[in-house]
Amino acid sequence: MRINKDMTFAEILSHCPECGEVLFKFGLHCIGCHLSPAETLEQGAKAHGLSDSQVDEMIKELNKKLKDKG
Description:
By secondary structure, the chain is mainly α.
């Protein structure tokens, strides 16, 4: 599995709870938000003012965290 911008926060965190650390680093405190089950990573990032390059960087870090998890 690879994390992509079209996955929901709930989907990402269900596969890799440790990815929450990366989301927090980018200012996304979406755990527990009522939108997180339906909102995609890209939608949430854009709503919080992240640029396309920041979203790409975050996805790279999320996938590294997922890979490191094993």
